[in-house]
Specification:
The protein is α/β, with parallel strands linked by helices. The protein has a single domain, classed as TIM Barrel (Alpha-Beta Barrel), CATH 3.20.20.140. It is built from 7 helices and 7 strands; from the N terminus they run βαβαββααβαβαβα. The protein has a 7-stranded parallel beta sheet. It starts with a strand and ends in a 21-residue tail after the last helix. The mean pLDDT is 95. Bound molecules: zinc ion (ZN) (2 copies). The site of one zinc ion (ZN) has 5 residues, from loops. One zinc ion binds next to loops.
């Protein structure tokens, strides 16, 4: 059993020191650990602190070409896009699809939202926190936003589902399956119950392991997800990057 790729890694292009390594450093660690492919998925453009800038894209592309040549690891250019509205908008424009090999999406706080109302409804409940379980209304609103995003965009991976943004994970996973979108088992945090993962697996949802490395040494570290896969007996055929490479929506053949 081998993990062949890591599809969630950050670099220095996630600004303000949020990501620590370079593309080459991430690829070198991947190579040492026997990975064939990685994705560079820095934080989306609307993140107030950590977002990449569109003017950095050319530099990232050049770094990728160079790192591929030096390490032999195949490197995909992606982004960890942010949900920015209740209508399911994310911070990626149609033009961006030209350079994106893989499109990941997750909810993050401290993101420029489409409208004030989106901030009040989606971000604020998390920012102020509450000792109570999230209301049904909030979960429904969040879930609807995710479902709309899945409908609107060719999203390849939903990152850390339920982290800081409670949704009906089963409903999201069901549509994700229809759309050919992978549900990530994140290397740092898994916020879906074992029961729900079990149900998803039974329904044929496809998962993908991602380290969410913010330092090069963490690239390829997916044990948290792997342990759950073994514990729950999820068939390895449903894990996109074990003993095979995933298939993403657009772009590369
Ligand atoms: Zn994230
Ligand atoms: Zn991330």
């Amino acid at each position: 059993m081998n993990i062949l790729g890591d599809y969630h890694t950050h670099t220095k292009y996630s600004r303000h020191g949020h990501g620590k390594g370079t593309v080459l450093e991430n690829a070198s660690v991947a190579n040492e650990k026997g990975l064939k492919q990685i994705a560079i998925t820095d934080h989306g453009f609307n993140h107030m602190l950590f977002g990449i800038r569109r003017r950095d894209i050319q530099d990232i592309k050049e770094d990728i070409l160079n790192a591929k040549e030096v390490t032999g690891v195949d490197i995909l250019l992606g982004v960890e896009a942010n949900l920015i509205s209740q209508n399911g908008n994310i911070d990626v424009k149609v033009e961006d699809f030209e350079f994106l090999d893989v499109l990941s999406m997750g909810f993050h706080k401290l993101v420029h939202m489409d409208r004030n109302e989106d901030f009040w409804k989606l971000s604020l409940p998390h920012l102020i926190g509450t000792p109570f379980a999230p209301s049904k209304e909030r979960i429904n609103r969040n879930t609807t936003a995710y479902l709309k995003a899945l409908d609107k965009y060719p999203i390849d991976i939903i990152t850390h589902i339920n982290y800081e943004f409670p949704v009906d994970a089963l409903a999201v996973a069901k549509l994700a399956k229809e759309k050919g979108t992978y549900i990530e088992l994140n290397g740092k945090r898994i916020n879906v119950s074992e029961r729900d993962l079990d149900i998803m697996a039974g329904e044929g949802v496809k998962f993908i392991l991602g380290s969410d490395a913010h330092t090069p040494d963490r690239v390829g570290e997916c044990n948290q997800g792997l342990n759950l896969i073994f514990k729950l007996g999820i068939p390895l055929s449903q894990i996109a990057n074990v003993d095979k490479l995933p298939k993403f929506h657009n772009k590369r053949g």
